[in-house]
Amino acid sequence: MRPITEEKMAEITAFMEEKKIDLLFLADWENSRDVNLRFLSGHPMDGFLLLTPGGETILIPWDVELAKEHATVDTIITDPDSRTNFEQYVKEVLKSDSPVIGVNAMISYRWIIALKKALPALRIYDNPIEVNELFRKLRSTKTPKELAFLEKAGKIGNKVLKDIEKFAKEVPNGTENDLSFLVMKKIREYGAEDNSFPSLVANVERSHLIHCHPFAGNNQFSKPGLALIDFGALYQGYASDITVPISFGKLTAEQEKIKQTCFAAYEAAIDAIDIGVPLWKISQAAVDVIEKAGFHMPHGLGHGLGLTVHDAPGVRQKPTSEEKLKDFVELKVEEGMVFTIEPGVYVKGAGGQRLENDVMIKNGKVVVYTKSKPLEVE
Amino acid sequence: MRPITEEKMAEITAFMEEKKIDLLFLADWENSRDVNLRFLSGHPMDGFLLLTPGGETILIPWDVELAKEHATVDTIITDPDSRTNFEQYVKEVLKSDSPVIGVNAMISYRWIIALKKALPALRIYDNPIEVNELFRKLRSTKTPKELAFLEKAGKIGNKVLKDIEKFAKEVPNGTENDLSFLVMKKIREYGAEDNSFPSLVANVERSHLIHCHPFAGNNQFSKPGLALIDFGALYQGYASDITVPISFGKLTAEQEKIKQTCFAAYEAAIDAIDIGVPLWKISQAAVDVIEKAGFHMPHGLGHGLGLTVHDAPGVRQKPTSEEKLKDFVELKVEEGMVFTIEPGVYVKGAGGQRLENDVMIKNGKVVVYTKSKPLEVE
To answer: Residue B25 is part of which domain span?
Structure first.
């Protein structure tokens, strides 16, 4: 079943009519994922999707049987070699000899090259970023059914919080890998199909990294200082994303400042959320706190949650350059939006702290539906 | 430390000189990964890499601290906002006003759009597929150090084979998820940093799917008929990839034929491997067996293993269309190559079988260094 609503589908075809786009071409393959394929078709992964301005959908899947089980489209191409000769199916659908094909800006360049080779007279719609932004806007609000899945993914995450606390307090010799593994185990026990991403587990020596590498190691987790774990659950394909900042033992003045700044930025951001508020203003509220304290946040404040863990909408700063402002689409908080708030402060040598919870706008209310809070262990 | 050798680096810069490419531009970001960034720089993920024809490397990382710990490059850009204004660093490196920039065909189209906006006079080198093929060729042979990591990843996988056999025989009520979880646990116990991908575990009802979705479910695994598990270990960033075909109980004649055809195709492929043999001929040997039996294999026979689980070289059919033949680079089996052999036969209703092992060419010998074999459970 496809997650997109009829109304949103109509927005896409109206956009195509207006921009004189003859065909929309989506590609989702390993190393170059486009969740819009699943959003528009229900097909989980690996394939091409063609959409005409009349709303006709043609799926060219890698795995035909998988498509038959999951996709809601008008046509499934069942040719088992369609992956390598997809261009012929594009040709068949097109009526014009010099068609305009719309693509998402995130598409792998290889497909553009292949299309141009097969159809030398085609033109790629000249503003693929606009296509990307349209999809992001449509994905930025969720249906009640999607909200229910997201809430469930959040609730599973909440249950794991207790296991993390217990581990931090009662397993002083435990490693990052031990905690990562515990979370993986518990998350499935509580009904998730999987982690929504590999947990990032960083002790004081690694917590200054935004995304530590490897994601977890054989280091003792509870060394004195600032640590964190960033994890999430996947439920029916929908993701939660939670970070717990943890401090072990007595902190230095610098560590204390990092910690307090992070939490103050979090509070400021949560306070700034309200229906109708531009998302960048929420980011600004957190960034103001962090910069006033003399730090710099090296990543965005938050991101949407949905069929991908980094979904629309982004909760980031407004661009400063005029060039980037041209492509900037200001989204405001509205019913059905779901996003993370996750300010972080990182200092090499001292460590980092990030506090992250998931927020949804449901029945006119702002609901912080995950329950992470700073954890202090003696 | 960067995995690429000096000799291979020199091949890239010689290519740039010959093709008059002023700058090579690589991008590795979520949803659009390019392992060549890590291959050329040692930086694990998330960033841009610029390479000049003189061999100068400039890394624009998302996480500066991560880069400092892992990268071997001439310059690391430490501007924390470099992700959003990377174009200025490209401009700074270029001497020409109308430069030619080389990209990998796999790059996300968004970066091409951004570069063209920032540098309207630039030209993208008109054969990005050639760039991609050059990288693939260079990554298709491994150094002795890389071979040692790959072998270790394979050995960890071999240990897990015994656990899979035990589970299949002794846990009749176990689910796909139970087995997936067991593998995840054991793989870490045996020293892997992680699975190299989420295990695909399919009972008879799902084994006809090439890549089942979800990867594992709460279905009983040992239902009578054809099942399989496809899994791998990650060691120091290097992947193994193994599939065990399992049959439970008495098979139907059709199931028996699927099984025998898959194994015969595997034997034919292994027999065809020899130094100097074009890789497509190994694929042809397996495909001949499968097609003679009246089946069609809906995926390639095998793929390289390395820093990514689907690395170079591909072990696939030679293209049949003249257009695709133009881009086709025939690689032959040579010292240092590492690839999977994984023929599969799939029939909806009856199920599927795939047998997969990892092969390396080391000291002039063909070594099948993983030990999967068909498993039969009464």
So the answer is: 6-139
- B194/A215 CB distance under 8 A: yes
Closest chain B residue to the Cα of A208, Cα to Cα: B65
> Is some CB atom of chain B closer than 8 A to the CB atom of A109?
yes
CA distances from B221 to B205, B225, B227, B371 (A): 9, 10, 7, 22
Chain B interface includes A213 (CB < 8 A): yes
CB contact under 8 A, B210 and A66: yes
CATH of the domain at B67: 3.40.350.10
What is the bridge-based pairing of β-strands B75-76 and A375-377? unpaired
pLDDT tens-digit map of B118-127? 999 999 999 9
ipTM, 2 dp = 0.88
Residue where the block lists tokens 């919080």: A161
C-alpha–C-alpha distance, residues B116 and B129, integer Å: 19
Q: Distance (Å) from the C-alpha of residue A298 to the closest C-alpha of chain B? A: 6
Domain count, chain A: 2
pLDDT band of B279, cuts 50, 70, 90 = very high
Contact flag A208-B113 (C-beta cutoff 8 Å): no
pLDDT digits (tens, 9 = 90+) for A151-196: 999 999 999 999 999 999 999 999 999 999 899 989 988 999 889 9
Distance CA B154, CA B34 (A): 23
Tokens (6 digits) for A145: 């059914």
**What is the 8-class DSSP label of residue B19?**
H
Q: Same domain, yes or no, for A261 and A206?
A: yes
Nearest Cα neighbor of A357 from A345, A376, A374 is A374
For B53-87, the pLDDT digits (tens) are 999 999 999 999 999 999 999 999 999 788 888 99
Instruction: Write the CATH number for B323.
Output: 3.90.230.10
B:39-58 residues touching chain A, CB 8 A cutoff: 44-46
**B148-201 pLDDT per residue, tens:** 999 999 999 999 999 999 999 999 999 999 999 899 989 988 999 889 999 999
Structure tokens at B76: 């690391």
For residue A97, the model assigns a pLDDT of 78
Contact check, Cβ <8 Å, B113/A132:
no
Residue among B200, B234, B232, B233 at smallest CA distance from B217: B200
**A358 & A322 share domain:** yes
Burial of B325 (0-12, 13-18, 19+ CB in 10 A): exposed
* Domain contains A1: no
